[in-house]
Amino acid sequence: MWAFVALLTIGGFAVAWHFVEPAPPSQIVIAAGPKDGAYYQVAQKYSKFFAENGIELTVLETAGSIENYDLLLADNDVNLAFAQGGTSPPAEAGQHRLEGLASVYLEPFWVFTLGHHVETDLRSLAGKRIAIGPVGSGTAPLARLMLRENGITDELPTELVSIGGSEAATQLRSGDVDAAIFVGSPQSQVIGDLLTDPEVRLLSLARHEAYAFRYPFLANVKISRGVIDLANDIPNQDAHLVAPAAMLVCTEEFHDAFVPMLLQAARKVNATAGVTVSREEFPSRLYLEHDLNESARQFLKSGPPILQRFLPFWVASAVERGKLFLLPFVALFLPLLKLTPPIYRWRIRSRIYGWYEVLRKIDQYAGPDADPDVLKSHLETLNEMEKELESARSVPLSYMQEFYNLRLHIEFVERRIQAELKSMRPAKPTLVPSATDAV
Fold first, then answer.
1. Residue 428: what pLDDT?
2. What residues make up the domain containing 237?
3. Structural domain tally of the chain?
4. What one-character-per-residue DSSP string does 328-392 give?
5. For residue 142, what is the domain's CATH number?
6. At residue 210, does pLDDT exceed 90?
7. Which pTM was predicted?
8. Is the pLDDT of residue 302 over 50?
9. Which residues are within 8 A (CB) of 91 and not within 5 positions of it... i.e. 6 or more apart?
């Protein structure tokens, strides 16, 4: 019985093994952005958080969101990336389905110009030389979209230059470009330097609400006067901007065990919206352009899994994956364990009752009209039963009363048959003495 229970339970574990998610790898790669950009800097902070939990998070330098999407959709080892809202490719563009993990902060759309006059309309850039961000970045497509909405295209005399980052800032200061467009966090070094440069002016969008209304991936943000630097009054007046969200995007192959850790890192690094007017906590499910990952949904709803709150990552991951093995234990082993004593009792009693069935048939046949030869064969059967009972030493003590009762009943029927056989023997003839013998 124990062997049967163990074999069936092992079979259940073997079936469950096919449904257990593989163990998480010890190294993952995140496609970030240029080294002087916010994506790269934030990813480096995430990497430190992962390292504290024994996971190597490699930060991959890229041109930006467009290249990041290309890496995600290609067949390679990159399953996680930063992406800017409004830059997602068509659903059928690649061989991997993408999922959203969270939006982690807002990235204002910054337009800087030279001079002392503060512009409030993108149409004022018509006919000028404008740095719109490098090819492969998320800045370039959003800049082209915003300019196109204002009737500005890459046709002379307007010239759209594909440079960004520190190079665009340098050319703006030197006058090689008339305006420079960036999409990034206020904490970015390049944007911070431009905001504090007295020769550079930030364009405030007078029609910011219209842009946000037309494009749901854009949010209204306000950079309040003095919020960057109160001592130097930077900026020296309120600036109304629009901002897409920085999103964490993954493929279906990204291991679910890393999702809570990644969002914990995002919660630690990107706790608030920064210097913008919005005080919504990040990470958030808002502004996502892809279906929300199920593990991310659970995290954003209830926080980290209970096991990861109290156990090291690898221990919590092993226990989490191993919980499926509880199903065979609960569904098979425990019920079978409870069934074992009744089945064992039935097995013992069935043996005893089987002997009683034979004994009853022999007892019913014994009688004055019974065939002596048949009675002799029954007597042999009873002798065999006694021998079997002598060898049956595995009967538990709790069943010894029934065991000895059977032995007594066998002896009783045996004596009865012997008596019947004795009564059936013919009487010996009595010898009468003759006269000669008497003499």
1. 52
2. 108-243
3. 2
4. HIIIIIHHHHHHHHHHHHHHHHHHHHHHHHHHHHHHHH-STTS-HHHHHHHHHHHHHHHHHHHH-
5. 3.40.190.10
6. yes
7. 0.65
8. yes
9. none
